[in-house]
Write a structure and sequence with these properties.
The protein has about 240 residues and is an alpha/beta fold. Helix content is about 50%, strand content about 20%. It is globular, with a radius of gyration of 32 Å.
């Protein structure tokens, strides 16, 4: 009996010791698990990455555009001055520039028979405070001209886009869709057709091209088709402004 009691006592003691060790081990694992979940802000990391990758959103002529690189090309020919169309386009661009975050790259082109561009070196810039101020002053000072060499204007805007490191590149064209570039030596329909081909070849970075057609009356069907085709072939939208 004494031996049996001693055996039972030892068994109970071992069981108790094993139970304590098991509980401590379980608590250690459980504690470590809870601490890991509380101390590692994995959700916050995901949010930061999403915020950095999120595109800039701007409103241009009432349309929402998303990207981190915006490149504008605007007709400044005589027809754009008749009812303040050039002034309206300048206002739209100025508002976008003012709203850009410093993560955004941009460039601006105005065309008639010649090209005006910001920056003048043809390379896109980041929208820091000094560049935004310089661009706003430059846009304000742009005056109207004569002629409408839209192909040169579009190709310059695409050159900005192709040189940009932005991931989502957006090109915006504003004008009446005319192609009366006297230096081309061909009729307007041929010029616009060749412009479509030239833009297709130059847009190797696959920038989205959006077009805004102003003064689109019944007598401008050819020009409107040009703007529609340009947007459709490059994943953009066309908006008509009467």
């Amino acid at each position: 009996m004494r031996t049996l009691s001693r055996s039972l006592g030892l068994a109970a003691l071992c069981a108790a010791l094993i139970g304590i060790s098991t509980d401590a081990f379980a608590q250690g694992i459980g504690g470590a698990g809870v601490k890991e979940n509380l101390d590692l802000p994995f959700d916050a990391v995901g949010e930061n990455e999403s915020e950095e990758d999120a595109p800039e959103v701007v409103i241009f002529y009432g349309q929402q555009l998303e990207g981190d690189g915006f490149f504008y090309t605007v007709d400044r020919s005589g027809s754009m001055q008749d009812r303040g169309e050039l002034a309206r386009a300048k206002q739209e661009i100025a508002r976008n520039i003012s709203e850009f975050s410093n993560r955004t790259q941009f460039g601006v082109v105005f065309f008639d028979a010649q090209i005006l561009k910001f920056p003048s070196n043809g390379r896109p810039v980041e929208a820091n405070s000094s560049m935004k101020a310089a661009a706003l002053g430059w846009v304000t000072g742009v005056q109207g001209g004569g002629g409408s060499c839209c192909q040169a204007g579009l190709l310059q805007a695409l050159n900005f886009a192709n040189l940009a490191s932005a991931k989502r590149k957006v090109v915006v064209y504003v004008g009446d869709g005319g192609g009366t570039c006297s230096a081309s030596g061909i009729n307007e329909q041929q010029y616009l057709d060749r412009t479509i081909q030239a833009v297709g070849a130059a847009n190797y970075q696959r920038a989205q091209i959006n077009t805004v057609g102003v003064l689109m009356g019944a007598d401008r069907q050819m020009q409107e088709r040009f703007l529609q085709n340009l947007a459709r072939q490059h994943g953009g939208t066309y908006k008509r402004i009467n």
